[in-house]
Amino acid sequence: MTMVQEDYYQVLGVDKNATAKQIKEAYRQLAFKFHPDRNKENTGAVEEMKKVNEAYAVLSNPAKKREYDTLKNQFGSSAYTHFRNNYSEQDIFSGSDINHIFEEMARNFGLRGSNEIFKEFYGRGYRQFEFKKPGFSAKGYFFGRPAAGTGYQQQANSPLGGNFGKISRFLLQRISGFQFPEDGTDVHDHLYLDPQQARYGGPYAYYLRHKSKKLVVKIPPRIRDGQQIRLAAMGQDGKGGGKPGNLLLKVHIRKPLLKSVKDLFSKWKINS
After folding, report:
1. What is the 3-state secondary structure (H, E, C) of 181-222?
2. Cα distance between residue 28 and residue 105, in whole Å
3. For 93, how many CA atoms within 13 A lie in the half-sphere containing its CB?
4. Are strands 152-155 and 136-146 parallel, antiparallel or unpaired?
5. Paired residues of 213 in beta bridges
6. Is residue 179 included in any domain, yes or no?
7. How confident is the model over 19-39, as pLDDT tens digits?
8. Predicted pLDDT of residue 163
9. For position 239, what pLDDT does the model report?
10. Contact indicator for 210, 236 with CB cutoff of 8 Å
């Protein structure tokens, strides 16, 4: 079965040669059509709205549109996949005026604005920020994306993406004191089990050094040497609302004393 590929032009219903004005007008109409406040009984409207948002964020940006067009010329219907392999949500939505268009709809039609809607779309992984200082102001947002088996994998987003964005975020952070969300790092450690523990499993007392905390790790039965146990959110803490990292414990099964002696004796015979 052939997988259907997305196409940003088809999503917005515009031609490849559409002007910036036509692209914006098409987006306004679709954003109004699929706005959740007007589609409370239509569960599919949220996904359509996400597609429309992404398509507009790309096609309304001359540089991203140009790159997408180049990929379409090279790869045809699979251009979307190639584009998404190179661009994260941060890169796609950086510099977009989507929030302004949502605010227009809020003022003109009494609908909710982008902050409330995007929180609904992306859960706790999304939030807006704004700060002002004499002679300097900035406004942006953060997106989170679903992560398998967890709530959301948070990803820092602002109007500034890519390598330039990293530098810009650093400067904004230094100037404003604002802390951009940053996920905590994973912590790696080792568990040493005797053969009986590995075979039957059960509770294992573990001391989490970086948090000065005692844990009881549940060892599954018949765990093998080299396997890894993952404890979610037990790694280093995140910053500025970023999610904590995980604790990854690599299992080592101790050899029985008699077998260790035999192995040592065998190595001695080989080397002598």
Report:
1. CECCCCEEEEEEECHHHHHHCEEEEEEEHHHCEEEEEEECCC
2. 9
3. 23
4. antiparallel
5. 208
6. no
7. 999 999 999 999 999 988 899
8. 47
9. 78
10. yes
